[in-house]
Amino acid sequence: MTVEAFQKMTADLAWLPRGVMYSEMYLFSVTCQQQGVTAIAESGVANGMSTRLLRRVWDDVTSFEWNTNGLAPDLAKSIVMGDGRALVPEWVSARPRQRLGVFVDGPKGPPARPLREWCLEQPQVRVFAQHDYEMGSEGEDLHGNDPAFRRDVSSVLDKDIEPRQMTKRLDKRGIGIWINRQAFA
Ligand SMILES: C[S@@+](CC[C@H](N)C(=O)[O-])C[C@H]1O[C@@H](n2cnc3c(N)ncnc32)[C@H](O)[C@@H]1O
Known about the structure:
34% of the residues lie in helices and 19% in strands. The chain has 185 residues and is of the alpha/beta class. The protein has one domain: 3-Layer(aba) Sandwich (Rossmann fold), CATH 3.40.50. A seven-stranded mixed beta sheet has the order 3-2-1-4-5-7-6, sandwiched between helices. The mean pLDDT is 93.
């Protein structure tokens, strides 16, 4: 999927506060495509920017959220309510023969680490992504704040996001992506 194709697929989706950047879901989706992923799970929905973007690219998206406060009303019926730390492993375990991508935007930080470590031990999880992750802190393969990616891709896909929001992206946090080497062992 080219940057231009992703831009066309998502052109009518306005950016929502607290949401992921367009370029971040592009990086996750294109990595999943390269790894032959067929189904996606995400944990952490809120306004649902990530959910809306993922649904444009993928037919099979399962979204988990544990808090009804702040959850977009139009998405509520299609979200699985509960703790992603338990529900993502259940979802992965129920799909032993598929190639899976997992995107986690809640929990964040250290509470997300056990889930990431567990996912990367499962051969069917080909790609794991963690949002608001500090670049380079725990050996990710790709990061949305990589200078070359920002120059070539974020500058195109995220250009219409309010500049004040973009300053958040001047720190080191963003989407971190791990490609599961275990899957190829
Ligand atoms: C920053 S928001 C998600 C934003 C969303 N991904 C987007 O792009 O618009 C984080 C969400 O994660 C949820 N969350 C935090 N920990 C969670 C958990 N263990 N299981 C499910 N949801 C969780 C919070 O309730 C919150 O709604």
